[in-house]
Design goal:
By secondary structure, this protein is α/β, with parallel strands linked by helices. About 30% of the residues lie in helices and about 20% in strands. The chain has one domain: Isochorismatase-like (Rossmann fold, 3-Layer(aba) Sandwich), CATH 3.40.50.850. It has six helices and nine strands.
Length: about 220
């Protein structure tokens, strides 16, 4: 039976005699030796709930994100990689989305019915905020968080950044995360544009971005 759990960049020194002022990109953190010590991973399945399928926030891109999430879960279990399911609830009891106890709040049946090692309840975009996720991972010696679920730019992006700040390795599954188009006072963006921008940003500094198939080959 799965456990149910409820609710840290240094600046480089610059030689004043240096005349090269070309901008440099942020580089992803480099572990001491990826080939020397095997990673101990946990797959985080973030917010795969009815709200994103039959509710007010239907995910549209990429097209096969859900089958890839399910495939990642199945292959993780075969390889002995812990699977942590994360479920979001709005902090406002009268929220129009993710209202605790509503059908939209419930996990997608395909997720709920699959074996998982822990269920984490959260109420903010970061899966580590106000939850026992960090202690659960660290107590099991897990050093690599694998990001899947929804939405790419919100809870997936935030959780990846948090894990990186905590000193963990992060793998971000490019086709097992997803989002939808948005428009507000700041402008509008398509689902594909939004998803791609986050993947590029994640690869720039926070995570190793890769498709599910390539990730499975590493297990």
């Amino acid at each position: 039976m799965s456990a149910v759990l409820f609710p840290r960049r240094t600046t480089a020194l610059t030689d004043s005699r240096t005349t090269d002022t070309r901008p440099t990109a942020f580089a992803p953190p480099r572990p001491l030796c990826l080939n020397c010590l095997p990673m101990k991973r946990a797959l985080l399945v973030i917010d795969v709930q009815n709200e994103y399928f039959t509710g007010k926030l239907p995910v549209t891109y990429p097209a096969n994100s859900l089958p890839n999430i399910l495939r990642a879960m199945d292959e993780a279990k075969k390889a002995g990689v812990p699977v942590v399911v994360i479920q979001h609830a709005a902090p406002q009891p009268d929220s129009s989305v993710f209202r605790r106890g509503s059908r939209e709040w419930e996990l997608l049946p395909d997720i709920a019915q699959r074996p998982h090692d822990a269920l984490i309840h959260k109420s903010l975009p970061g899966s580590f905020t106000g939850t026992d996720l960090e202690s659960w991972l660290r107590s099991r010696g897990i050093d690599t968080a694998v990001i899947s679920g929804y939405m790419t730019q919100m809870c997936c992006d935030t959780t990846s950044r948090q894990a990186c700040h905590m000193g963990m390795n992060v793998e971000f599954l490019s086709d097992a995360t997803g989002t939808l188009a948005f428009e507000n006072e700041a402008g509008k963006v398509t689902a594909e544009e939004l998803h791609r921008a986050i993947l590029v940003t994640q690869q720039l500094r926070f995570a190793k971005v890769l498709p599910t198939g390539d990730w499975i080959k590493q297990l």
